Amino acid sequence: xxxxxxxxxxxxxxxxxxxxxxxxxxxxxxxxxxxxxxxxxxxxxxxxxxxxxxxxxxxxxxxxxxxxxxxxxxxxxxxxxxxxxxxxxxxxxxxxxxxxxxxxxxxxxxxxxxxxxxxxxxxxxxxxxxxxxxxxxxxxxxxxxxxxxxxxxxxxxxxxxxxxxxxxxxxxxxxxxxxxxxxxxxxxxxxxxxxxxxxxxxxxxxxxxxxxxxxxxxxxxxxxxxxxxxxxxxxxxxxxxxxxxxxxxxxxxxxxxxxxxxxxxxxxxxxxxxxxxxxxxxxxxxxxxxxxxxxxxxxxxxxxxxxxxxxxxxxxxxxxxxxxxxxxxxxxxxxxxxxxxxxxxxxxxxxxxxxxxxxxxxxxxxxxxxxxxxxxxxxxxxxxxxxxxxxxxxxxxxxxxxxxxxxxxxxxxxxxxxxxxxxxxxxxxxxxxxxxxxxxxxxxxxxxxxxxxxxxxxxxxxxxxxxxxxxxxxxxxxxxxxxxxxxxxxxxxxxxxxxxxxxxxxxxxxxxxxxxxxxxxxxxxxxxxxxxxxxxxxxxxxxxxxxxxxxxxxxxxxxxxxxxxxxxxxxxxxxxxxxxxxxxxxxxxxxxxxxxx
Amino acid sequence: xxxxxxxxxxxxxxxxxxxxxxxxxxxxxxxxxxxxxxxxxxxxxxxxxxxxxxxxxxxxxxxxxxxxxxxxxxxxxxxxxxxxxxxxxxxxxxxxxxxxxxxxxxxxxxx
Lengths: 597, 111
Ligand code: SF4
Ligand code: SF4
Ligand code: SF4
Ligand code: SF4
What we know:
The complex is a heterodimer.
Chain A: H1 9-31, H2 35-44, H3 48-62, H4 65-70, H5 72-100, H6 107-111, H7 113-119, H8 127-152, H9 167-194, H10 201-211, H11 214-238, H12 245-258, H13 270-276, H14 289-292, H15 301-309, H16 315-319, H17 337-345, E1 367-368, E2 372-375, H18 384-397, E3 401-403, H19 414-418, H20 422-438, E4 443-446, H21 449-457, E5 465-468, H22 469-478, E6 490-493, H23 507-516, E7 518-520, H24 543-558, E8 564-567, H25 570-579, E9 585-586, H26 587-593
Parallel strand pairs in A: 2-3, 2-4, 4-5, 6-7, 6-8, 8-9
Antiparallel strand pairs in A: 1-3
Helix pairs in contact in A: 1-11, 3-12, 5-8, 8-9, 9-10, 9-11, 18-26, 22-23, 24-25
Chain B: H1 24-32, H2 44-48, H3 50-54, H4 59-67, H5 74-78, H6 86-90, H7 97-108
Residues 278-284, 301-302, 305, 331-333, 335, 337 of chain A line the site of one iron/sulfur cluster (SF4).
C-alpha cells in the first residue's frame, strides 16, 4: 500500500514542528521547577491522583463540562470542536483498521485516508464508517459555524465581549476556521470522482458530479487536498505560539494540579503551564467590574495572561486589578488568576534599603491578658465602632482577651504583598508571628478579612486557631455564650471579596444576621458578590472610579429594600458609607447592639 | 541694636529655595499624579498613618517636602510606610496616596 503523496508534506512538517516545540517547552518547564515541586510530583505520580487526572482530562479537555455549566452555547462550541475532532481522529484510525487490517499506516495515512483509498484500490465502502465519519465532521462543522458567528456577534453566546487577538492568533484562528470546510470540500470532491455514500460528503459529491464537468472536478481534486493539508500544517506550526496552545497544555496542567502543584507569590516555571493553558475564551471579561462599571478594556485576566505570556506585561496592567477574584471563580480552566497577578507584581525589585522597618525591633504595644488574641487590623482603626463592638461581645461572653493592636499595631503585611514587595512583607509576618507566640495565644480573632487571609495563607501559626470575628461570634451564639434579641430589621449582607471568595466564609455572617433579623440577598451574592472597589490590590484607578464601583455595588444592596446594609470588612464598610444613604454596619456592631446578657 | 526685635521684621523666604532645589523629580511625580496638586495639606494622612503611630514618620510633611524638591532623606523615610492604605481612605481630596508612596519610591529610589 502506498501512503505518500506530495500534498501531505505541509501536514508532516507542521506536525513535526508542533510536537518538537511542545516537547521542548514542557521538558524545560518541568526541569526548571523548584525542587519541592519535583518532589511533589515523584510523591504523587503513582497514586490514584493520576487516575483522577485522566478522568478530569476527559471531562474538561474533551467535553468542557465547566464551560457548559457557565454558558451552554459556548460549551457546545468548545465540546463539538474538541471532542468532535478527537473522535474524528480516533474513529478515522479505527476506520483504517477496518479497511486494511492491522498493517502499519503512517500518521498522514490515517488523516488523509479518503485520498489514499482509491489509490490503493479500495472501492467498496463500509456504510457504517461513511455515515459515522460524516456525522462527526458535521458536528465539528457546527462548532466552527458557532465560532464564526461568535466573532460576528458575541452576544449570541451570551457574552458581552469577546477576546481581542494578536497576530499569531489570527493566523491560527483563520486556519482553524477553514480546516474543516476544506476537509468537507476535499472529501466531497473525492466522493464525486470515486464515489462514496456518506450522507454529507456523498450527497455533496453526487451533486458536484451532476453539476460540474469531470475535467473541472479532476483539476480541483489535488488542489483541494493541498489546501486541506496546508491549513493543517499552518495550524500545527502556529499552535504552540498561539492561544491554541491551551488545547494541549491543559493536559499536563491537570496532572500537575492533581499532584498538588500550585503557583505561589514567587514566580516559577509552573506558572507557564497555567498561563499557556488559558484558552482566551473571554469568560473572565464579563464579571470584571473594571470593565462593566468603568469601561476599562485591557487589564482583564485574559489580556493580563496574554501580555505576560508574550512578555509585554506593563506594571500598569499588572497593577490595575482589584484581585476581587470574580474572574477566577468563573475561569473554566481553573487558573489561579489572583496568584499569577500577584507574582507578576513581585517582579519589581524589593527595597534595597537595609534599615527598613528597623523600628519594629522590640516594639510591643499590645495590652490585656488572655488565650484569645484580637487583632483589629489597620483598617478597623478607621471604623472604631467595630473594635468597640468586639470588646463588648468579648465582655458579654466572659472572654479574657489579649489585644494585639489596640494602641497601634503593625500591618499584617498583605498590602505590601499585593504591591509585590514580598521581602518587606516578610518582616511584618515575622514581627507579628513573634508577637502572637510571645503572648501564648491559642486563638486569633481578627476583624479584617485582608488580615485573615494573610494569616491563613502566609503565616505559619500552627497551634493558633485563626478566626474571622464572624466565625467567632457565630461560635459564641451556637454555644449559647451570648443571647441575642430579634430586632426585626431586614439586613442586606455584602460579601467582602477577601472573606467570601478569599477565605470561603459565606454562611456564618448570614446565620448570625438571621438570629437578629431577616436576611435579604442582593442580586449578586456569595461567590458572585460584587467588589466594593476600594481594594488595596488596585493602585491604578482613581477616587472617582472607586466611587463608581462602590455605587453600582451598593445600588444592588439598596434594591433589596433592606433596613440596614451589613458587611464584615472595615474597607467595604468605608466604601459603602461613601455612596449610600444607609449607614452601613458591621456584623459585630449589629450583634453588640442586640446582646441580651 | 541689631538683636532688638520689635516684632515688625519679615522672615527670610526659607521654605522653598529654588536656587538649591532641583524640581525635576518633583515635576515628574506631579506629571504622573496631577491630583497631588489638589492637596490642601490637611494632615489627615499623617493623622491616620499606621507607621506614623509607631514612629516619627510624617507622611504629609514628607510628600510636601518632596513636592518642593527637598529629597534629602525622603527615600529612607518613606520606607517606614507599610502601604496599609489608610491614608488613601481618609484623604478629603481623594488623592491616591498609596500609589503616591510607590511613585515617590520609584522616582527617588534606584529601581
Ligand atoms: S483566564 Fe480563564 S476565563 Fe479568562 S480567558 Fe483564560 S481560560 Fe478563559
Ligand atoms: S480579579 Fe476582579 S478586577 Fe481583577 S481582572 Fe478579575 S474580575 Fe477584574
Ligand atoms: S490627607 Fe490628602 S489632602 Fe490631606 S494632607 Fe494628606 S494628601 Fe493632602
Ligand atoms: S499607607 Fe503608609 S503612609 Fe499611608 S497610612 Fe499606611 S503606613 Fe501611613
